[in-house]
Design a protein that fits this description.
Low-confidence stretches: none
Shape: elongated
Helix content: 25-40%
Number of domains: 2
């Protein structure tokens, strides 16, 4: 769990786990979040222990690891030739669709590592060897 963890960042509907005997509890975000609950939260949803006990592996295991998100694409095309930038922008626009494209571009929504890889591949497919440069990077939990 990151040092400056704030329980208020946990989404309201995020499943918690109470199974301290689980061999993976030390690495499970669901269990670690439960350890950090605060008195302001009157209730939360939990994983059904009977459901998990009936299986070899917990289908709800969520590794306690930060994800490296990108934020914003306003400067993405600064070092790309204009014609290539227009083509790449058009591909991204159609891939993400209009409203999502602008939410991502304007820092309203984070860009997942998978989406960053897609954007990187579009650049490569268009002959741009330079890494795409996003406005910012943020390390946080992928709830």
């Amino acid at each position: 769990m990151k040092e400056n963890f704030n329980y208020k960042d946990v989404p309201w509907d995020y499943l918690h786990c109470l199974n301290a005997q689980c061999p993976r509890s030390a690495d499970c975000l669901r269990f670690q979040v439960t350890l950090h609950t605060d008195q302001d939260r009157s209730s939360f949803s939990i994983v059904n222990p009977a459901y998990v006990a009936a299986r070899e592996e917990c289908p709800f295991f969520h590794l306690d690891r930060l994800t490296h998100f990108a934020l914003g694409m306003r400067r993405l095309f600064d070092k790309v030739p204009h014609a290539k930038a227009l083509k790449i922008r058009n591909i991204l626009y159609h891939h993400f669709e209009r409203s999502m494209y602008y939410r991502i571009r304007n820092k309203v929504r984070l860009i997942t590592p998978k989406e960053q890889a897609f954007i990187r591949q579009v650049f490569l497919n268009e002959g741009i060897q330079e890494e795409p440069v996003f406005d910012e990077y943020v390390d946080q939990y992928d709830w």
